[in-house]
């Protein structure tokens, strides 16, 4: 975003407007104050396409980072939760790590975060609620289901985002965007149809996570664009508001004592557990930041589409990394449909963000 510079120039007389030399010297071509202002405005217009390009690349970079980190984190979480099945304790540690990371960055001068105000608490309480319930259900689902089945069910989120925006605000989208989203989702469903093994608790948790995530992403987009929170503030505030609730839940259910006993056993018996746990917690904090950043730089729908494309790779890799699921020709056909829909959506969004250069051209010669 560019800001206008306001210049104050004294004019001795209305009949004799002050003139300044175009190159700062004497005996050269002179222009009036109005002409100089016009030249400056034209120069500002020249910078608009550059600002548009920077905004476009920021949108692309945030989406790619969110997709890559989310892909890796899914496998790390699966590995940790298989040996340490305590999702609430895991989420509590993740919130604590996020708070520490943001505060360290703030002390180091790498970022600036405004103090948490009461009005911010009121605005963010719905975001915090839907975030934590979404993650809790997602952790239950990823533990109960195989990676491919989990991703297949989570790919219903983009449709829920479109439906949520329509029901809440009456927002509609273009036919091209709607078709690309439906192609992505239908392709993902096709990819998993031949590999689904019914698990009621896992299915229920995954579907609840989809509904909660779509609501959560819409609220994050609204919080950032309408209430002025940046991605770091959302990350810190979410952790600060979530941690007390999560601590209370783990204490009330008694999970904290079982999780401590289990983690002691894992540390003694499994040399890889601690590196996996630390990596998963760090990536969880980074993923939260990238999720906020991607949603603010793009939209809730773009974030869910990136998650859908990411889950395609996660599904294919899940067939080989954790085993137990056999791929079929129908699955590969679904992946193809998903890829076509994702590429189509990317092209449409790229065209929407392209600056209209014909409207930004200015004449430098008179």
UniProtKB/TrEMBL annotation:
Source organism, top-level taxon: Eukaryota
Keyword Metal-binding applies: no
Coiled coil: none
One GO CC term on file: Golgi apparatus
Sugar phosphate transporter domain residues: 71-338
Membrane topology of the entry: Multi-pass membrane protein
Keywords linked to the UniProt accession: Membrane, Transmembrane, Transmembrane helix
GO biological process: transmembrane transport
Protein name: Sugar phosphate transporter domain-containing protein
Organism: Physcomitrium patens
Gene this protein is translated from: LOC112284381
């Amino acid at each position: 975003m560019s800001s206008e510079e306001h210049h104050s120039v004294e004019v001795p007389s209305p009949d004799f407007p002050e003139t300044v030399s175009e190159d700062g010297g004497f005996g050269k071509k002179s222009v009036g104050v109005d002409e100089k202002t016009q030249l400056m405005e034209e120069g500002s217009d020249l910078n608009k396409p550059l600002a548009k390009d920077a905004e476009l690349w920021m949108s692309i970079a945030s989406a790619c980072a969110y997709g890559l980190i989310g892909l890796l984190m899914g496998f790390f979480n699966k590995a940790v939760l298989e040996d340490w099945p305590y999702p609430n304790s895991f989420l509590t540690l993740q919130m604590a790590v996020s708070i520490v990371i943001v505060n360290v960055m703030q002390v180091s001068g790498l970022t600036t975060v405004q103090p948490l105000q009461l009005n911010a608490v009121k605005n963010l309480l719905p975001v915090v609620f839907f975030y934590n319930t979404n993650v809790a259900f997602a952790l239950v689902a990823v533990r109960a289901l195989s990676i491919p089945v989990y991703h297949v069910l989570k790919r219903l989120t983009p449709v829920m985002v479109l439906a949520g925006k329509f029901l809440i605000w009456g927002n509609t989208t273009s036919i091209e965007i709607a078709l690309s989203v439906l192609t992505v989702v239908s392709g993902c469903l096709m990819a998993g149809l031949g590999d689904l093994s019914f698990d009621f608790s896992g299915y229920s948790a995954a579907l609840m996570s989809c509904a909660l995530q779509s609501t959560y992403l819409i609220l994050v987009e609204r919080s950032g664009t309408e209430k002025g929170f940046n991605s770091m503030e959302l990350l810190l505030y979410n952790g600060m508001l979530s941690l007390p609730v999560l601590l209370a839940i783990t204490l009330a259910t008694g999970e904290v004592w079982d999780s401590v006993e289990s983690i002691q056993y894992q540390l003694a018996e499994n040399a890889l557990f601690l590196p996996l746990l630390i990596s998963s917690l760090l990536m969880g904090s980074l993923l939260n930041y990238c999720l906020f950043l991607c949603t603010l730089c793009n939209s809730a729908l773009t974030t869910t589409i990136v998650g859908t494309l990411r889950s395609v790779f996660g599904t294919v890799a899940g067939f080989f990394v954790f085993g137990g699921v056999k791929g079929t020709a129908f699955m590969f056909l679904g992946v193809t449909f998903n890829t076509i829909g994702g590429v189509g959506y990317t092209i449409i969004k790229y065209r929407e963000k392209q600056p209209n250069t014909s409207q930004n051209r200015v004449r430098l010669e008179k």
